[in-house]
Structures are given as C-alpha cells and as structure tokens.
Amino acid sequence: MNQVIVSQKVAVTSRVCLLTLSSQQGQVLPAWSPGAHIDVFLPDGMIRQYSLCGALDAQHYQIAVQLEEQGKGGSRYIHQSLHSGAELTISEPRNHFPLTEGQSPCLFLAAGIGITPFIPMIEACLAGNRPFSLYYAIANGSDNLLSEQYTSLANVHIHDKATQGVRLDIDALLKAAPADSDIFVCGPNGFINDVLSLSAQQGIDSARLHREFFTAEPIDHSNDGSFEVEIASTGQVVSVGKDESMLEALEDSGFFVPVSCEEGVCGTCITPLLGGEADHKDVFLNDKEKAQMDRVAVCCSRAKTPRLILDL
Ligand code: FES
Hints:
The chain is α/β, with parallel strands linked by helices. The chain has three domains: about 1-90, Translation factors (Elongation Factor Tu (Ef-tu), domain 3); about 105-210, 3-Layer(aba) Sandwich (Rossmann fold), CATH 3.40.50.80; about 225-310, Ubiquitin-like (UB roll) (Roll). The chain has eight helices and 18 strands. A hairpin with a 5-residue loop joins β12 and β13.
C-alpha cells in the first residue's frame, strides 16, 4: 500500500478528470510498466482499478477517471468529492495487460476511456522503435483524451463516430493486421467482445490477443448451486452455499484470499486450482486459460463438479 496526495486534479473532458498522485513524504513511488494499473481505495470500502497513464519515469502517477453516472459511486466520489490535496491509499502497481516482449508490430484498439493504458504503450513503442498502429474510437471529438503530441503521429488514427457516421471497422483492421502482430484491446465490454469474437471468426490465434476489461457484465447467478472446496494444504473441506461466493465461504472459514474488484475483472483473487472443474464466471481469464482449469477467480466463479481443490 502507498499513501499518496492528489497533487493535481484537472478536467480533461466533460466526463473525465486526470488525477496526479504524489507520495506523501516525497519518496519515490514504485516503478511500473505500460499496461499497469493501481487499486484506489475510497471511502465505504470501495476499491477501483485505474490504468496508469502518465510518464514511466515521473515521480508521480497519473490516472484518468471517467464519470459513470450509473456506476456504483466510485467515479462519482472522485469527480465530486475528491479534491486536490486529499490523501488517498493506493496499491502497488500491478500489470495484467503488459506490452509483449520483442519487436513484433502492435495493433492497439481502444475505445473511450480504454485509451489510457495505451498512452505509456505508445511511449514504449516510440522509445524502442517498435512498429505500432493505434485506432481510437470515440463517440465525438469532445471525448478525445489524446494530446496533439499523439494525434499528430501518422500511425495514430482517431475514429470519431459523430463525424464519420459509422463504427470503427474492427473486422477490416483485424484482417489487415500483419500475421505476426500482437493485438491489444481495451474499452467498453461490447467493444472488447466485438474484437474477441471477430478475431475468433478470422481464426486469429488467441495468444496474439491481449485485452483488459474495466468492468464486468452482470453475472447470472440464477443457476448457482452449492459445492465444496477442499484446501489442499490441510485437507479441510469448506462448504459453499448456493447464495454465497467461494470467497465468502473461504473467509468465513478463516482463509485469506487477496481481493480487489470482487466481480471477476482484476485477477487479484485468482487461486491455483488442483482438482475439480470450475464454472468460470470472470472476464479476467481468457478462453484458453479457462479451459486449462488450473486456476479460478474465487470472488465470482463456481464449480461444475461437487468439489474443487484449491492450492491454499
Ligand atoms: S477480486 Fe478481482 S477478479 Fe476476483
């Protein structure tokens, strides 16, 4: 955990503010890499994840926060009640959306606030002479979060739906992507799911696809049943009722599993799975990872077999 001060808060569009976070005692904040995010701890126990979008070598962090009027209140609190000078607790940076190693071309597909992790990725590509193209879908020009320093680049393409009248042609972009390219996508769930399903239709190897969800779709728990979890280290068996999560049952039995989003997005609670078949409900693991059945998000996933064996 790090204690930071909101050293600056600037409105960059009508719905997005940029926070600059500086350490309280002037210490150097932990290093991070493009694609990393931090957890921000807010009053009432709310924890929100935001991608780091400032300069990698800066003495401070920067995060962009979009106001979600229909959200659970985290972004509303930040927009309306968090002011410059306020103290905040944040996690160490974690990176579940890293830029791949090497010099393969990168296709960056961003929509809306999903542009934020790509800003340091662009910087890394520019610094390492790595070829990349960025396509950034926005609803209209006033939503653009990229500064002129990026929009002036020949390989940065802004797709403004209001002026162009059509959606970004993801299908065509995927077809045109070099066969050795890495494809990165971030944005609203519908945008990410379109990229994933069109990629699957085109037979693109899922190893080339890298995605980061910000929020989960509502999870259908209507068919949830009870099951058991065996703790591999002790043999203890924990019963999970149909109305409780695996996480809740584990916590009630005294087991600690680190959590953050509690809705299958961030990957913090992923726990090694040694036996049984999980009913994966998260969006953190991709289809290939889910099929491997070697880990499970205990905050939201359940079981298809009567018992799961967890490496706890
Ligand atoms: S706590 Fe975020 S995926 Fe489980």
